[in-house]
Design a protein that fits this description.
By secondary structure, the chain is α+β, with helices and mostly antiparallel strands. It folds into 2 domains: about 5-45, no CATH class; about 60-165, no CATH class. It has helices at about 5, 40-45, 75-85, 155-160, 165-170, and strands at about 5-10, 35, 60-65, 90-95, 110-120, 125-130, 135-145, 150. The strands form 2 sheets. It has a 6-stranded antiparallel sheet, with helices on one face. A two-stranded antiparallel ribbon has the order 1-2. Strand 7 and strand 8 (about 150) form a beta hairpin. The longest helix is centred in the middle third of the chain and has 12 residues, at about 75-85. The chain is globular and about 60 Å long. The N and C termini lie far apart (about 55 Å).
């Protein structure tokens, strides 16, 4: 699409001096004229309705189910065993599907996801994810009994799984 099809030209109506460019849909400069996304395209961009020319989102190839030892990456098995050895209730699940692209929302290449979830008697929950056999550094989290959610490094994850509930709650 060209700019003429996408944007309409409007006069900038903000009362800020020209050196304060913030607040304009597009930087107006000294001419005070800006390009603004046409209302029909804005509505289509932010609508939850599917666009006619886009195919429907593909169904998952494998719905989430309990993973077998052969399907679980070695590092995930080690984390699950560490949690079980320290009294956590552990579930290891596997699924395969097409994740959504972060900016466009369109399906990406299919990925196999293994999720290790553990819960302690005091209500603390931990989750870690592996995508196509590789640990996802952005998908290791702990939910504390008070509702706080914290991202974890690999070392933090192991330390929390080794900590006893009394030592953990006394320490903060």
């Amino acid at each position: 699409m060209t700019d003429e099809e996408t944007y309409e030209t409007v006069e900038c109506d903000h009362a800020k001096p020209s050196w304060q460019k913030y607040g304009c849909p597009r930087y107006c400069g000294r001419s005070r004229v800006v390009l603004k996304l046409k209302p029909e395209l804005y509505a289509r961009t932010w609508s939850s309705d599917p666009v006619e020319d886009e195919p429907p989102y593909p169904a998952p190839e494998l719905l989430a189910r309990e993973a077998t030892d052969e399907e679980t990456p070695n590092s995930a098995r080690i984390i699950a065993a560490l949690a079980r050895a320290n009294g956590w209730t552990v579930a290891v699940t596997i699924a395969r599907g097409t994740p959504a692209h972060a900016t466009t929302g369109r399906p990406t290449a299919p990925k196999t996801s293994v999720l290790v979830r553990a819960q302690r008697a005091d209500g603390t929950r931990v989750g870690a994810q592996w995508l196509d056999g590789t640990a996802d550094a952005k998908a290791r989290k702990v939910r504390h009994p008070d509702g706080r959610v914290t991202d974890l490094s690999d070392a933090d994850l192991r330390a929390i799984l080794r900590a006893s509930p009394l030592r953990d709650s006394a320490g903060g």
